[in-house]
Amino acid sequence: MTAEMVAPAWMHEQITAEQYDSWSEEQCAGIEVVDGMVVVSPSASKRHNRLARILANALDEAGGPDWNADTDFDVRLQDVPLTNRRPDVVVYRADTIDIVPTRPAHVLLVAEVVSPGSETTDRVVKVDQYAKAGIAFYWRVEQAATGVPLLYTYVLDPASGAYRDGEVFTGKVRVSAPFSVEADLGAV
Question: Is the peptide bond before 81 cis (omega within 30 degrees of 0)?
Answer without folding.
Answer: yes
